[in-house]
Design goal:
Ubiquitin-like (UB roll), five-stranded mixed beta sheet, 1 helix, 10% helix
Length: 67
């Protein structure tokens, strides 16, 4: 298990966890979000293969509508 920070909340995840698996685990929508690890945006095409390292800082941003 490794510890990562997701929107300033520390979580323990398996070392083999991918972005897609994390989003499912935390019940996050898969559409309308941006995902960054250590201030680096990760392209959606990489979510099924991109993993984490201990102490990574994750930011999930939900798109909103408005005017």
């Amino acid at each position: 298990m490794i510890k990562i920070s997701v929107n300033e909340t520390v979580l323990e995840v398996e070392e083999t966890t991918t972005i897609s698996k994390l989003l499912t685990k935390i019940k996050s929508p898969l559409e309308g979000i941006a995902f960054a690890i250590n201030n680096q945006i990760i392209a959606k095409e990489l979510w099924d293969s991109h993993g984490f390292k201990s102490n990574d800082h994750v930011l999930i941003i939900q798109a909103t509508q408005g005017g």
